[in-house]
Amino acid sequence: MFKNLFPNKILLLKNNTINNLIILLIVVLTTGIIYSLLLSPPDYIQGDSVRIMYVHVPSSFIALGCFGFIGLASICNLIFKIKIMPLLAKSIAPIGCIFSLISIVTGSLWGKPTWGAWWAWDARLTSMVILLLFYLGYILTWRFIYDFEKANKISSIIGIIGLFNLPVIKYSVNWWNTLHQPSSISLTSAPTIHYSMLIPLMTMFFAMAIYSLIIFLMRYKTEIMKLKVDKKNKNNLKC
Amino acid sequence: MFSKKIKPRIFLLLFLSLVFAIIILLILKSLENNVVYFFSPTEINEKTDISFNKKIRIGGLVKMNSVKKNEQIINFIITDLKNEIIVSYNGLVPNLFSEGKGVVAEGKLKDKKYFIANKILAKHDENYMPPEVSEALEKKDN
Lengths: 239, 142
Fold this sequence. Notes:
Chain A is built from eight helices and no strands. Chain A is mainly alpha-helical. In chain A, about 35% of the residues are buried. Chain B folds into two domains: about 35 residues; about 90 residues, CATH 2.40.50.140. The interface between A and B is large, with 38 and 41 residues.
């Protein structure tokens, strides 16, 4: 599977594949939205504001996942100097950035009716803001440093440092007293969320994951094309 | 397994990561009083360096049958099932504030057992379920 991400393979990626993915996205997203907004029950305390969760939780998952990917790619990049690693990480960064922003905004909208405050500087919320800052730092490094090698090194270091933030976000609700509730879904124990709410949550997660995949493939293909064009230009200049 | 060029890079990165992880742990450890969003009544009870002029937050469960409202002022007890603090608050409480549920109060301590709040936040727990299920659960408990 990983072979498909090699430069020459990705250029063969047909628009057809992306179109099929878009159709799949539309199907899953419509199901998810109908299920979460109309069919799923309101919560026993929160009422209908629980529906914000169906956007909030999947976006947080994806924001964390994307940064995990960036971090791992940065490590591989610094150690093995694999050329496609920075391109992979670079194409996934804006996706994670937008989803962490969505997560923060929807969380804030949920916080007002539930907690009684738009914002609280507790450990979970603060570490999430730090994640957003790392994303911005990562993206801006690529944007404002024109020398590829330099930008590559600095952004990789940002990616690796940001990796330490991920366990802090994940476990902040268990390590310290926070206003944010602990997670309802874990690998080791039964979910504390009723299955009639878990199913739309998972559907929305798949929809957002497919969306991220589409954007990632499109951006990655563009990055590879840019690389090839740059190379060609350089060769032409030499001749 | 790895070539001569790659090995030192791995070790350097591992070493730097370890150093960095320790630095972060130490920082978080020393800032623990600021990282926690609220103190539980037991923590307040055990603390020796409480300042009564500084704004702090305490949190726990609202004790059953402890909420008393008269006109604007609302009194209730925050408990962590070991220790309790009486809270007095003047203002509106969030919709989700109710007995037996989590709460965070922001304000100043009068003494170790009495707290004057100027802001009340409701804390939601990690349980999500439809109303019917919660009713069924309550019936089962009774």
